Amino acid sequence: MDSLSALIVLGGGDGKRLGGASKPDLVIRGRRALEWALISQPNIPHVCVVPETVTVPSDVIRVMEDPPKSGPAAGFLTGVDAVRRILGDDCARPRWVGLVPVDAPLASLCFPRLLEAVADLAARGKRVDGVSACADGYRQNLIGVFSLEAVSRFPASEWVNRSMRSLLAELNTVDIEVPASWVADIDTPLDLERAQTYAMDGELCVEGESSGE
After folding, report:
1. 6-30: buried (b, 16+ CB within 10 Å) or exposed (e) per residue?
2. Residue 96: how many CB atoms within 10 A of its CB?
3. CA-to-CA distance for 140 and 142, rounded, in angstroms?
């Protein structure tokens, strides 16, 4: 099975429906939302697309799209540029980059299933640029695994204020169904309250489900 070479975490919007709260700093069962994203994928480079006001661990690369707040596609591609700088010559061989939004605490549970799909497609001779998580028939544009080679073709400067949906339309991707609880995000105070019930402190698992699901 292929593995991730890097993880990109998008720091979220301005949190208007949360009273302007910083989404990376939301606390879910004693752990910052940003930390939920970071703890799941050890021993690979981590890139967080967040403003300087957000504290990140010392071993995490922090970047921001230019201009700031110019959308998730520009943010993702800015993260891709950072990954390429980190990996250097290692970019020459096939690499897969994970993408999650900071406000979906359990999103990284999707990675084993997405990487398994990549391996299965390759075994059947089908080449893809990436796979996206899909729940209840709805693609999650900010949760996926992508070929570093494929997404490196798109300059961040050309994707300012454009959507991830439009970027995905330029890629050969496949949607992979996952449990809805894995992709649940936090946009409102009610969402934050619900998150306390399924994000189990200290580990990534959903109550009543196996983390290997």
Report:
1. bbbbbbbeebeebeebbbbbbebee
2. 21
3. 6
CA-CA distance, 202 to 207, in Å (whole number)? 13
AA identity, residue 129: D
The answer, as to whether pTM is greater than 0.85, is yes
To which H or E segment does residue 79 belong?
helix 72-87
Helices (H) and strands (E) in the chain, counts: 7, 9
CA distances from 17 to 13, 74, 163 (A): 10, 23, 20
Q: Quick check: 68 and 51 in contact, CB under 8 A?
A: yes
177-196 tens-digit pLDDT = 999 989 999 999 999 988 88
Query: How many Cα neighbours within 13 Å face the side chain of 167?
Result: 29
